[in-house]
Amino acid sequence: MKKPSQKTKNKKSTKRKKKNASTRKKEAVRSNSKLLQEKQPVIKKPSRPIQRMPKKTREAKVGSVTKIANKVGQFLREAKMELKKVKWPTRKELLASTAVVIVLTLLVAFYLGLVDFGLIKIIRNVVG
């Protein structure tokens, strides 16, 4: 028994009608006109002139202050949410990292002081 994927497909016979020259020309004109219609961009003109908004009044200023206050409030709420996601260090980790920073800062300061002192001595010997 054959599997469904191995079954042969029935081929339907296709009959084509012969088209005369005038029918072929009409179809060519239709297809060309459709292509031309698709390629041309459609430009819509406004039906009426655009009206400008009236000048800002005192009420508009109050609205803008409210908008700014809302934006500031939203920013602060989002900042609070982000700070809740932070993994804060423990007291022990904080003291250890602070000590490392202080020690490395002192070492770099000592190194730069020695280099500065050496360069000053060299320049005094060359100039003087």
Describe the structure.
The protein is mainly α. Among the domains are: 58-88; 90-128. It contains three helices and no strands. It has helices spanning 21-39, 58-85, 91-127. The protein is elongated, with a radius of gyration of 41 Å. The chain starts with 20 loop residues before the first helix and ends with a helix.
Indicate the structural class.
mainly alpha
Low-confidence parts, pLDDT < 50 over ≥5 residues? none
What kind of sheet is the major sheet?
none
Reading the helices and strands in chain order gives HHH
- Terminal residue distance: 109 Å
Helix content estimate: 55-70%
**Shape annotation:** elongated
Tally of helical segments: 3
- Rg over CA atoms: 41 Å
Count of strand segments = 0
Tell me what portion of residues adopts beta-strand conformation: under 5%
How confident is the prediction overall: mean pLDDT? 78
Concise synopsis of the structure shown:
By secondary structure, this protein is mainly α.
List keywords for this structure.
128 residues, single chain, mainly alpha, elongated, 0% strand
Write the SSE topology:
Layout: H1 21-39, H2 58-85, H3 91-127
